[in-house]
Structure formats: C-alpha cells, structure tokens
C-alpha cells in the first residue's frame, strides 16, 4: 500500500471535501421546513435545467457504469458497446412519457411511480406490486455502487471492509440530513471530475501506447484468438438480435427505475424536463469514450486483480489509470469513480425510501400519516436501505450482486404496461395488469434461471442472453430475456383485460383527468389528490 500513498492522499482529500458539501447541502436553497417528502425527497421540486441535468446524469451514469462498461469491452469485445445505442434511443423514447408523468405528479403531489398507478387505476394492490418491484430492482443497484469503490480500494492496496463501511456511513449521514439536495450539489463536482479525467485519458493514454491504431489492433488480435462464441471484434450472427433487444430493453427500463423518476420529478417545470431530454445525450458521448478504456487496457497489457482464485475484471480501469497516469492524477481519477458512486447511491436510497413510505407505510400501516411523519419514516428507511446494501456486498459474493442487478433490469421492465402505457391509455383493466405483471415476472425468472455462463462457472442466472434453442428452435440466436418477458406480460395483460371486461369485473376509479397530463409550473389546478378504490 505504501507505493500508493500519493493516490490515497488525493483520493481521501477529494472524497472528504465532497462529503462536506453533502452536509452543507442542507442549507442550499433551504426552505422554512424540510419535514416533508416534497422537500427532503424531491428537493422542493424546484430544480432548474442545469441542476436537473447534473442530477439526472449523475444518477444514470454511475460508478458501476464507469468500471463495468469498459470491463465488458475488455472481456467480451463489441457486445459491450450495447450501452451506446441504448443511451441514445432512450431519450426520444422517454421524452413524451416523462413530461406527462411530471405534469400529473406535479398536479397531484405524487412522489413515486406507484403513486401514479394507485391514482390511475384505483388499485392499491397494483400499486403495491409496482412499489415492491421498484424496491427489488433498486436494492442490488445500490450495492453495485460499492463494487466501483471496492475496485478502486483494491487497486490502491487498501484491504479490509472498514474503509467501505466508513464511506457508506458518511453517505448515509449526509443523505439523512440533506435529502435530495446533497446528491444534486455533489453531482456538479462528480461530473466535472469525470469529464476532466476522461478527456485527459483519451488523449494521453493512446499517445503513450503508440496511437489509436495500436489500441484497436491489440483488441482485434485478442478477440480473433478468443475461442468464446460470444466474444468478438464485431458482432456475430448469434448475438446480433441479443444486442438489439438488449439495447432496446435497457432503454425502456432505464426510466422505469424509481431513482430515475425521482430526479425528473424534482424538476421545476415541463420545460426543464424537455430541455434535459434534449441535452442528456451529451453523456452518451462521454460513455462512448469511457467504454474505449476497455480496449486501452488490452493494449496496455493490464491483468485484472485476482483474489482467492477469483478474477475481478472490474479492476481493469483503476489498474489502467495506475499504470498510465502519474500518481496524483491517478488519485483524482479514483476520486472521480468513488464520488461517482455516492451520487447515484444517495438518489437510489431516497427513491427506495419514498416508495416504502408512500406505498407501504402510508397505504397499509398509517394512512393518516402527516407530512412530517412521512419525511421521518423516509429518512430512517434510507438508512436501512444503505445498511442492507453494505451487508449485501460484504456478506455475499460480489458477482451475485451483479447477477441481482441483471435480474433487476428484467423485473423493472414488467412495470412498463402500468406506468409508461398507463400515462397514455386507461384501456388496460387493473386485473389484466396484475395478471400480466405476474406472468412477465414468472417468465423472466424462468428464462434467467436457464441461462448458463461457463466463463464464470454459473449454471443459472449467468447472463441476460436467452438461447432460443431452449424453446426448441434449431438456432444459436440469443435474445434479451427482459424483452421476451415483457412480450409475455403485454399479451397476458391484454387477454386479462378482455376477460375482466367480459366478466364485468369492477373497474378502478381513475382519479386523474386529461388536463392533468399537460399541467405546468404555476398551474392553478394543482391540488392534493383524493384516492379511493378497492384492492
């Protein structure tokens, strides 16, 4: 560890400075009273274009993204570029969806996607399923932020669990105090550091390696010699459909995650949301540059750290910085990754806490809870969520948390009919949506269970590429499991709706009106919603 003293010192100073900003954030744009979810959990719903851009960008492009996407290119080649098309197509897809969600949530004081489903379909049961799905998908995502910090600590020679625990204890403390204002303020620093480090890396590292031609030649030589069928310099006939469906499925899933919705609902107006959907693709350019770090690591001859016989491929980017950068710059790069974990982890824990508070605590435990009681419960829940995330990463194999995140992407897609389609149509019957959710969830889990990955010695849950041969087809083509599960969900939801209508099953009461989906800042129609309806 002694040879990394400069890196550790720079990392510690920057990490401590940013943590201090997290505590100071409680005084930033401070309202008279923080004791409500609108203030603690959504920053007062008053963030403008710049704050929202950094907040949402910092939320979506996490520390795990910075280490995992290059690691995927390092290990598998062209498949790793799926992240680029999906972060490009996602913004046109969600542009129309999110401005409608912002308007109806702003009108009725909604805080979570499950709040909207509860009001739209008049079904507490469907809202509970949406909330539980969001919690299940978010928890492993928070744990994965620790994977990024852990990779940095390993590279600096820092061992043991205590540094990781301290880092998340600090995160928990300032999130408890400042709520969403903390990650919103820190996101400025995090993204600035990331941009600086990546711009330096794409100029400095290839120059040291002999130019971009050398980088791509090294990557090509590696994958042409690889016997693995999924690896390749280019996509092959077997994984092209998987690539397309994974990119499209991931795009549809991205803004169904509760933490993505939290960042958008904190915006001040529809105009802020529109401007951000137009500007956020700038992050995709950054992501493309980050992905190329994987090929640079191949050209630099980086060997991932191996502990107890297990190779941690997530260490390739920190090791690349350690090998190519002077110590002080490597310390800045490590701090960028570490801080990059704090912003999304804070937003995710707040989003998960809001789900529990609004859609479980207030719905089933204490219906008459005041704004102050809601905020108090949400603060405590955010602490519990972080403790759970730390326990996941410390007590189980980190590879398992990665598998859980993979499952999270498949299951959050099953909320699309109720949340995304529900913003445009009330055609689906609540009973049909519940049946579709159950069928899609079951199909997704069965497919994931039957996906093996010999490279990591997993017979089950070994990836998201479902072989169509498992369905009896004579082909080597694979498809993203989440995409197929969503197709099952939609088919069953449609059939269930027709059956429910034929059986004259009671429709839930729609507490929203058409005009609610077009309301904007300062609209006089904004008011608290009156909820009713049976399960």
UniProtKB/TrEMBL annotation:
One of its GO terms (cellular component) is plasma membrane. It comes from the Bacteria. Gene3D superfamilies: Sodium/glucose cotransporter (1.20.1730.10). It is a multi-pass membrane protein. GO terms for molecular function: transmembrane transporter activity. The keyword Transport applies. Coiled coil: none annotated. InterPro entries: Na/Glc_symporter_sf (IPR038377), Na/solute_symporter (IPR001734), Sodium:Solute_Symporter (IPR050277). Keywords: Membrane, Transmembrane, Transmembrane helix, Transport. This is SSS family solute:Na+ symporter. It comes from Sphaerisporangium rubeum.
